[in-house]
């Protein structure tokens, strides 16, 4: 390998690193200037561009390092396949799952997802892991490998709408229509409410009483916890004003 080839390879690597670095800073900054779906789709471009840049760099480097004959290419690909298959099985599986995730988009930056019992906002999609930030501001990295054998619960699926539910457990002796109307008023008067979406109350009888579920949408998915807190606090206050008694579920200790 000549010094000219080494310089060319180094130039390609530095250029690829610079492009990735710029995309990871410029695109998130641009996304923060946008709203709704435009913001989410702009954030989704970050991992896609990174893959394109890395693949392009690899395509440019390989012909310079290995003479592109059939024998050399077969030998190179065979050796790489064996190394990957035996030494990096789980890692490569996560990488492949990451490519599948970017293509199928089961989650995107800005989505609120539940993966393997962890619920949080997707902040960054890497080559091997997806970075989630929970409501307690805890950062969790989930390997894309979880995509193969776990259900992915996506609360907003790339859009600005996310349904929130506030639950109330009431003794069964009260007028359900009065309670339903009171809870609907609570939802309609919330400062976090997205007015374009419906406010509904569902009712279900349980052995211990009646379950009321107040369903509505916040203006921004990131407001979901403040929204549920607002609905719960004001809903409870209103029900107490109506003289309603809440049910308690007794648990048996073993």
Give the topology.
Blueprint: H1 3-32, H2 36-65, H3 70-87, H4 89-104, E1 112-115, E2 118-125, E3 129-133, E4 139-143, H5 146-149, E5 152-154, E6 164-170, H6 176-188, E7 200-206, E8 209-216, H7 224-241
Antiparallel strand pairs: 1-2, 1-5, 2-3, 3-4, 6-8, 7-8
Helix pairs in contact: 1-2, 6-7
Membrane topology: Multi-pass membrane protein
Organism: Idiomarina seosinensis
GO cellular component, one term: plasma membrane
List keywords for this structure.
single chain, 3-stranded antiparallel beta sheet, 254 residues, MscS_channel_TM-2, alpha+beta, 5-stranded antiparallel beta sheet, 7 helices, elongated, Alpha-Beta Plaits
**Oligomeric state as shown:** single chain
User: How would you sum up the global shape?
Assistant: elongated
Strand content: 15-25%
The major sheet is characterized as: 5 strands, antiparallel
Q: What helical percentage do the residues reach?
A: 40-55%
CATH fold descriptor of the domain at 164-241: Alpha-Beta Plaits
Chain-averaged pLDDT: 84
Structural class: alpha+beta
User: Strands across the major sheet, in which order?
Assistant: 4-3-2-1-5
Tally of separate helices? 7
> Could you list the spans in which at least 5 consecutive residues all have pLDDT below 50?
none
Query: What is the CATH class designation of the domain at 164-241?
Result: Alpha Beta
Helix-strand pattern, N to C? HHHHEEEEHEEHEEH
Taking all Cα atoms into account, the compactness measure Rg is: 26 Å
Total E-strand runs: 8
Q: Which architecture of the domain at 164-241 per CATH?
A: 2-Layer Sandwich
Rounded to the nearest angstrom, the distance between the terminal CA atoms is: 73 Å
Protein name: Small-conductance mechanosensitive channel
Organism: Idiomarina seosinensis
Membrane topology: Multi-pass membrane protein
Transmembrane segments: 6-28, 40-63, 69-88
